[in-house]
Prior knowledge:
Blueprint: E1 20-24, E2 27-31, H1 40-51, E3 56-60, H2 70-77, E4 89-93, H3 107-127, E5 137-139, H4 168-176, H5 180-262, H6 271-277, H7 282-320, H8 338-369, H9 390-401, H10 409-414, H11 416-440, H12 447-500
Parallel strand pairs: 3-4, 4-5
Antiparallel strand pairs: 1-2
Amino acid sequence: xxxxxxxxxxxxxxxxxxxxxxxxxxxxxxxxxxxxxxxxxxxxxxxxxxxxxxxxxxxxxxxxxxxxxxxxxxxxxxxxxxxxxxxxxxxxxxxxxxxxxxxxxxxxxxxxxxxxxxxxxxxxxxxxxxxxxxxxxxxxxxxxxxxxxxxxxxxxxxxxxxxxxxxxxxxxxxxxxxxxxxxxxxxxxxxxxxxxxxxxxxxxxxxxxxxxxxxxxxxxxxxxxxxxxxxxxxxxxxxxxxxxxxxxxxxxxxxxxxxxxxxxxxxxxxxxxxxxxxxxxxxxxxxxxxxxxxxxxxxxxxxxxxxxxxxxxxxxxxxxxxxxxxxxxxxxxxxxxxxxxxxxxxxxxxxxxxxxxxxxxxxxxxxxxxxxxxxxxxxxxxxxxxxxxxxxxxxxxxxxxxxxxxxxxxxxxxxxxxxxxxxxxxxxxxxxxxxxxxxxxxxxxxxxxxxxxxxxxxxxxxxxxxxxxxxxxxxxxxxxxxxxxxxxxxxxxxxxxxxxxxxx
Length: 504
């Protein structure tokens, strides 16, 4: 065999811990660490090297499948990230000199034991779901009778006396007989496998991203539902507060209206006083202060409950929310020639789409991070700290009502019924004004401004969340399209592998 470099070590112990490449005429041989030496780092190096190989040679102990076989199963059957090498593997059973028969003394028995060992390996692999053609199995001895062992001062000549039976020559002849055409076909197959593995890796990453995005949108949907529930409860609370204040003021106004309607001719002169002074009742002032306190307490309770619920939903969403990282990006191989090359070029183009989509999301995703994890749009709603003072509100109503005291007595004498009706209407207008002032507060510090302030913050927060959900949904759609394109390319790539045929 021609083309070996001087750094190819020949000895019985483990000689390789990294990948070494050797050019052998039309074949490029990549020497990797063994699969069953108990070193997980070596396993990873070997699997990565095998991913882009046209033909894989696996050396097994004469006792066959010993130790952890998961890596061998992954290499033969493929994983979610790597293509199956199956029919592109040659299994080399090493140490045939340990079969128990001297090949020079009993050559026929030796050949029989070799065939049995090869059949045993085929059966063992098939029991693990690995389909193997018997022609893929070859028996040899890398260090007949352990004569070399751990020595490093050896050459090819030290193995020559056993070449008639150790099986090494037949393997070398096969590798050395590859033509230029076969070499190019192997290189194309290797590039195809590398591209397929890259696409498989991208499919795994996109699948992971889609699961995270869907989980994120589920959390956002739940969060938005909690916000909508809070908005709905705020509307119910506002209606309840309005009705509660109305019911607080109405008995006092109704009593004044009743006095007006029941006033006789001798009491008409008292209507001005009744119409202008009913809100000065001490009991009304006490009732107003209490209804304001109760309303503020209910707003504080509403804020506390929904802030807690929404806060938990926010933490759940923030935990699930995901952003792409640079290492997640997929870029396909850039080489291209013939049918396989064109397919690889398309794979690279698809990878470019993935990268661009990810970069776009990186920018948009920053919007969501500005929202923050904790939900504190209301700050600390200390409604109880807003002391309810009815006197300023009632004083304001009194100023607005002073105009009725200027009605002339002459008008009352001419039309007492109209006078009563005007007085009752005046009381009703003052009642509505008082209810409005109680709800708003003397300095816009009443129950409704506080509630509306909270709801406005909630609505603004909801808009941010809806934007984030929209971004996630757009990204899901984009990722699904990318995944569909990758699935199509994978199917085409597998068809190319079948057309190419397994190497023998």
